[in-house]
Amino acid sequence: MDFTVLTRLNLARRSRVPVVLVRNLEQGTDRVITEDEDLGGALGEAILQSFRSGQSLLVEVDGDRLFLNVQLPPPHMVIIGAVHISQALAQMALLAGFNVRIVDPRTAFATPDRFPGIELAADWPADVLKERPLDARTALVALTHDPKIDDFPIANAIRSGCFYVGALGSRKTHASRIERLQADGLSKDDVSRVRAPIGLNIGAAGPAEIAVAILAEVIQSLRLRDISSPTKIIT
Amino acid sequence: MKVKPGISTASLMPSEISDPLVTAEIWKKGGREVAIATVIETWGSAPRPVGSHLVIDRDGNFEGSVSGGCVEGAVIAEAIDIISDGKAKLLEFGVSDETAWRVGLSCGGRISVHVERLD
User: Which residues in chain B touch residue A49, judged by CB atoms under 8 angstroms apart?
Assistant: First the structure.
């Protein structure tokens, strides 16, 4: 591989642009194709398919064997609440390859001292999410159990088709949350997408173990989702 | 990770530090000779998915993986040769035969690994 090809590839990856490296195994040549380029024909179709599925694969085009190595930008995790669990979860999610952002209007909680190296927004979720909207590549984790802070981003995440929506709180807390979300105009089906109690049931005790349970549930949703039928977006 | 002056890893995210393609770029910029190995096909049970990378320098330092540690040794040895002669190569690994000490995958799968020099 030529070094300029590698730097172009890494630049696209760093800029979070979906990109495919096309290696011609017969001729030993490489091409970097970004998502906005449409090559057309059989190769264009194969590249489109790999962007959609996120799967790298070997294809044969005009008698040449080509390896399409697709690189999709990492998923995002938006954590509502700069709480104790978030301190562990943010670091773990970063290590697992997520882009992590924490939102909490309580300035005493959202401090760089408590979250070194993590992107923080000490502001109301409604304002923050207007600036940078949620999308299908984002997991929303609500951890304040304060309806004033959590409810808006949870409803917003459902409407934006986030691949994961989870909320901390007991069954009782969640039952009243469901009522509020339905009063806000969401259907029973929509609301059932919220994972609560949050996290896989591994008997987690303490903030770090609960963070493991949450991250495992988020990864499960990401990897086992049905790519042929994306989560619906409610407009 | 050895880093030459002028190239900082401080601005990288923790998840990028173990990103083999980023490592390859940093190593090459730092004057090291580098080969990139990529899993391009798998059959049956395989420890790492298609598209996984292992990058290797002339001294055998490496970052990333193409299997769960089963065939990395053999890939690294081949990569050092490929750094010398510059010819890309396709390596195939099948089931290991422990009695014959043959390199392979104990999980029973097969993988095809493409190795090339970064020029």
Answer: none
